Amino acid sequence: MTERDRLDRAQIDLGDMDEQDFRRAAGQVADRVADYLAHVERYRVVPDIEPGDVRARIPAAPPEEPEPWDAILADYATLIEPNITHWQHPGYMAYFCSTAPGPGVLGEWLAAGLNSNVMFWRNAPASTELEEVVVAWLRQMLGLPEAFDGMFTDTASVSSLLSIVAARHVVPGLDARERGLAGRDDIGPLRMYLSDEAHSSIEKAAIVAGVGRAGVRRIPTDDAFRMRPDALAEAVAEDRAQGFTPFCVVATLGTTSSTSVDPAGPIADVCERERLWLHIDAAYAGAAALLPERRGLFEGWERADSIVVNPHKWLMTPFDASLLLFRRPEVYRDALSLVPEYLRTNVRGQVHDFHEYGIQLGRRFRALKLWIMIRYFGVEGFRRRLRESIRHADTLAGWVEAEPGWRLVAPHPFSTLCIRHEPDGLDAEATDAHNARILETVNRDGRIFLSHTKLRGRYVIRVTFGNPRCTMRHVELCWHLLRDAANA
Ligand SMILES: Cc1ncc(COP(=O)(O)O)c(C=O)c1O
Fold it and tell me: Alpha-carbon torsion 172, 148, 191, 276, what sign?
């Protein structure tokens, strides 16, 4: 842009932020984020606010005229930053951790600057090819065979949905892509199988894919909350006899409540025998496959048709990044590709035009942050951090087991514990209420944030590790707060 152009545009308020202003503001933002990460513990993990408090402090109508950058950043500092739940806080031990380490944040910044929309190669050549490379890197890190191709989506919910649609696409005689599902009486109702501990996103996928909740059969789990392959085989046989069309099994390696691991090998046997698509949901725990000493837990997953692992969970990648791996990319493409004239290019087929394999046309450039992080930490760096989370969980588990009244309610193969305090003289209901009070007391303190679940109908406290900023000091604080709350 010439000086003349610059002055013209500045005068009539057109164009982008001025370059010098941008440089100054970018420096302020970099400092702000560095300070935030260095001092995140000055905040409570969960802010002490009520619904509507933030909204009440923001004008209901947008500003008609430009506001100064400094005023905007100042409002960010007072209104937004202190009033979020701090996922970056080392005391965040609820649900599953999702943290953004420095190199990942920098990767997000670079991707934001490029604003590359990874629809197809012509529109995003380096971004498309980097996605191909990083998907292959992650596949190797997970110890999976070359037969798996893949791509990134935003979330495990979407990765699983695409896989259910792909599984539906190969049901003989169904042709849901062209004919739809409504009003059909030429094929029995579809049926898919998941354990009674599988994530709600799978059932949502069934809703969206036209399978419906009635088409979802939950298979009972064993004492360790793992799907029972014998019960799966019986359910499939029973459904076939009753005219259903079984088409897909979803095994979860690392369930959301207890992180139990469905036996992938025996489930793959059933799927092969019955010609059912096997989708593996390893959204959280898949990261542990980087560790040779944990890989046994995943045995058999290499036989799946599709697998989802979320780097934005335990692989410490900034939200969002979900890795979807599949053996037969052509099935996803046949099920979902529509290429109108305005999206046609003359290199189709030579590289992945990723929009053809999913629902979205526009896609974020997620590979960049992962490429940067994998290079910056090295695979061994990821392994060290994963082992540290496991060490935190194992240490806390040891303290829980050694303390009278406290109990580990489920095995803990990864970095997540389900625990419960069971004092003498309380029945099950009263014990549930007692544990809910413990959780509330710990969370009210503000330094640690835990969540809960129910296992076999009983309330349990969940503690999960995975934030690389978490140290043994935080594990000790968590245990100290739990014990104090239980004794209060
Ligand atoms: C096992 C499992 N699957 C799927 C999901 C959904 O993940 P997302 O938020 O990426 O859709 C979760 C979320 O915690 C999960 O634990």
Answer: positive
Compute the average pLDDT of residues 22-32: 98
Tell me the CATH class for 117-364.
alpha beta
pTM score of the predicted model: 0.96
Q: Where in the chain is the domain with CATH 3.40.640.10?
A: 117-364
Residues 235-276: tens digit of each pLDDT: 999 999 999 999 999 999 999 999 999 999 999 999 999 999
Pocket test of ligand 1: the residue of 310, 312, 323, 464 to mutate, having most ligand atoms within 8 Å of its CB, is: 310
2-23 tens-digit pLDDT: 766 666 666 557 889 999 999 9
Residues 6+ apart with CB under 8 A from 415: 314, 386, 389, 390, 392, 393, 464, 465, 466
To test the pocket of ligand 1, the residue of 197, 201, 281 to mutate (highest count of ligand atoms within 8 Å of its CB) is 201
Q: Residues 381, 387, 391, 393: is their CA dihedral positive or negative?
A: positive
Q: What is the mean pLDDT of the chain?
A: 96
Alpha helices in 244-355 (DSSP H): 264-274, 329-336
Summarize the confidence of residues 474-488 as an average pLDDT.
97
Q: 47: CA distance to ligand 1 center in Å?
A: 24
- d(CA 25, CA 66) in angstroms, rounded, equals 16
Alpha-carbon distance of 112 to 238, in angstroms, equals 52
Cα–Cα distance between 474 and 461 in angstroms, integer? Answer: 17
Ligand 1 atom closest to the Cα of residue 310 is: 10
> What residues line ligand 1, using a CB cutoff of 6 Å?
96, 155-157, 199, 201, 252, 254-256, 281, 283-284, 310, 322
Output the CA 155–ligand 1 centroid distance in Å.
7
* Closest ligand 1 atom to 155 CA: 10
Spacing, Cα 226 to ligand 1 middle (Å): 17
Looking at residue 217, its pLDDT comes to 98
249 within 8 A of 278, measured Cβ to Cβ: yes
What is the rounded CA–CA span in Å between residue 57 and residue 48? 15
- The Å distance, Cα 335 to ligand 1 centre, comes to 24
CA–centroid distance, residue 410 to ligand 1 (Å): 19
Q: Please state the atom number of ligand 1 nearest to the C-alpha of residue 282.
A: 1
| Cα 253 from Cα 265, distance rounded (Å) | 12
pLDDT digits (tens, 9 = 90+) for 207-224: 999 999 999 999 999 999
* Contact of 202 with 250, CB cutoff 8 Å: yes
- pLDDT for residue 78 is more than 60: yes
Centre of ligand 1 to C-alpha 128, Å, is: 25
